[in-house]
Amino acid sequence: MSRLLTISHLQIEGHQEGAWQPIVSDVSLTLERGEVLGLIGESGAGKSTIGIAAMGYTRPGCRIVGGDITFDGVDLRAASAETLRQLRGARIAYVAQSAAAAFNPAHRLMQQYCETPVTHGVMGAGDSAANGREIFAKLELPDPDSFGARYPHQVSGGQLQRAMVAMAMSCQPDLIVFDEPTTALDVTTQIEVLAAIKEAIRLYNSAAIYISHDLAVVAQIADRVMVLRHGREVESGATGPLIDNPREDYTAALLSVRKGQGEKIAPAEDRELLRVDGVSAAYGNGVTVLDDVSLSVRTGKTVAVVGESGSGKSTLARVITGLLPPFKGQIAFQGETLAPSYKQRAKDQLRHLQMIYQMPDVAVNPRQKVRDIIGRPLTFYYGLRGDAKRARVDALLDMIELGPAYGDRLPAELSGGEKQRVCIARALAAEPELIICDEVTSALDQLVAEGILKLLQELQNDLGVSYLFITHDLATVKAISDEIVVMYQGEIVEQGPRDAILTPPHHDYTELLLSSVPEMRTDWLDGVLAQRRAAG
Amino acid sequence: MTGFAKFIAAAPWTARIGLVIICGYTVAFLFAPWLAPFGETELVGDAYMPWDDKHILGTDNVGRDMLSRLIYGARNTIGIALVTTALAFVVGVIAGFLAATVGGWLDQAFSRLVDILMAIPGIIFALLLLTIFGSTLWVVILVIATVEGTRVFRLARAVGQSIVVLDYVEAARIRGEGLGWIMLREVLPNAIPPLAAEFGLRFCFVFLFLAGLSFLGLGIQPPTADWGSMVKENATLISYGDITPLLPAGAIALLTVGVNFLVDWFLHKTAGLRDDL
After folding, report:
1. For A446-523, where are the alpha helices, taking DSSP H only?
2. For the domain bounded by B12-270, which CATH number is listed?
3. From B182, which residue of chain A is nearest by alpha-carbon distance?
4. Contact B190 A366 (CB under 8 A)
5. Does residue A266 lie within any of the structural domains?
6. What is the value of ipTM here, to two decimals?
7. Structural domain tally of chain A?
8. CA torsion angle for A114, A119, A123, A124 (degrees, to 10)?
9. Is the pTM of this model over 0.80?
10. Any idea what the CATH number is for the domain that residue A303 is in?
11. Domain limits at A405?
12. pLDDT digits over A26-43, tens only?
């Protein structure tokens, strides 16, 4: 039987700042029928570009300049638009990262499911719908018979992603390209989608290219893995051996993250800094998003707040900073009760409570230079100007390991990790007692995030600042926290010292969260699913 | 200078045409007294004299030199339109940003007021006010600025609203920054591209509005040279197949096209679109 897909010496360029820059350089891969290849790498590694090139397509602003792409004997680079149209959807399918953006909100799911088979003439609308109900059932979607009658906004994010997997299967394609299908999902939802993908591939014996930045996720699905960096292949091989014995340092670095963060130094003094007491909050529509939440943060400590999206953890940050006044309960800082709204708080109270955001891109003003961004709190809180301010900004830039030369850059000239460091420096400039970190690493690549966590820990050791660390990522929690607060649907389900929370017995929800974090071994997913099935 | 040359070289031909047109008008605007062969209101001959060597474009309905009045018209019409647009922008942008940043009842008050003003057709509203207050220069400017300012408010508020929800504005708020800092330093610099584009387009609308009012006899009053009134004063000639009255109208059209060419290019650039795609 001939090879399903052969890509040899692929070269792709992208148009950037008026010139063509290489995005993918000399990448070759092959795929047999029924085989799953994992493409892994950080952002900018070219993995999505290769994935869609396997369909003979490039994004606007990109062009293929060299190499061959052969799908089942057809040369995709030379193929006519009509030939490509026949192949795409019918024989090669694509599953995008964000299902919410990939579905048309104005049509029912079943209509969208049937569209491809009907257009390609694979089957009629009736047969296709019957088929769809069958696949929905196999992917364990609720009410498979009526599920298709819903609109995209009427189902949850994980269900929508599974519906997209079902849609990709509608023509029983030979090859499916999965482009980070679980990245935008919570761990507890990710596991459902992963199970669905694995089941779908098994059912139809399709070949697949699975693109992800998370090696642990890929390990559950892929037979072989290719590690990419800056558009080049780092190494590739069968999944198990590659995880157990990586040949390249870069692969080893990707594997080694998610471990401990090095030592923590015990704080010089130990007193209660922040006390949140029985706080309940709601947004304008009257839906309560925080229900009777109490916690406390001590000096020089890190309290991690964990939970999936919708658990109210970011709302808690908004309540503490005074952006969303609570309707019940109060917040005390260093023994003083804080006004519910930031507008009524004293300048010094505001200074002591700083915040770092999830998306560094929108957390710094794109029209201000780094020096002005970091310098503003110095002028605002301390009245620093001229040379004194300059010296302090330089010192802060050193502290975040960037150096004074970065001061004259605009945010657009910085990478995501560098921008996040600037945000940290801006928070530090105020010399706060407590920094609220709202998902500060989730928009960053693994290794960059690792660097940020390390920096935060060092700063805590040096300066004795406390962190309230909000995250959905349990690996981060393990790495950085002293205490853990687990939130679910606006309530705290469990809280205590890190080791107590992470050692069994767990609360049911904590157990679910912990067991849903992918582990770096190939049989993890099957093991967890078997365990859950046994538990009923 | 090389930077500027590069800038021009990178511009598409439409933008270059726009730039040349605007430069031409600017010269006429700045050097009118030196360029014009005769005075603005000087009577130089009979009414409706045909085109000849002395009066290149003939004379108007009372015997003033047409070419001279066209050149002075640039100064009057463009000058007044610029002042009016600037006024509409200062008021509209400040009110729009206030509504976006403060929100709540202030936003409601401003927005509903603007809704009411926008519900009345602009030209009717202007005619009403001009009839009440009389057609003096400053009344004309204020009336047009009010009408056009409502549109500016709408844009500034929409642009502002999408900026004030961003994290860096939130960071400034919880730092304790005042309203002035947030509006001027955080919001305004990031709202410049759409506002600048709108300024170009709004300038054209103001300009047309002004010409329209003048044509109706309620705008700039004689004997001041103004393209709108010049069309009206000499309209009779059209019946005799003479195109002279169309020249001021052509001047209006040409400037509008030029400004739009330039604005299109600016929008294209700031939107990050590329020609090669």
Report:
1. 446-463, 474-480, 498-502, 508-516
2. 1.10.3720.10
3. A365
4. yes
5. no
6. 0.79
7. 2
8. 70
9. yes
10. 3.40.50.300
11. 272-516
12. 999 999 988 999 999 888
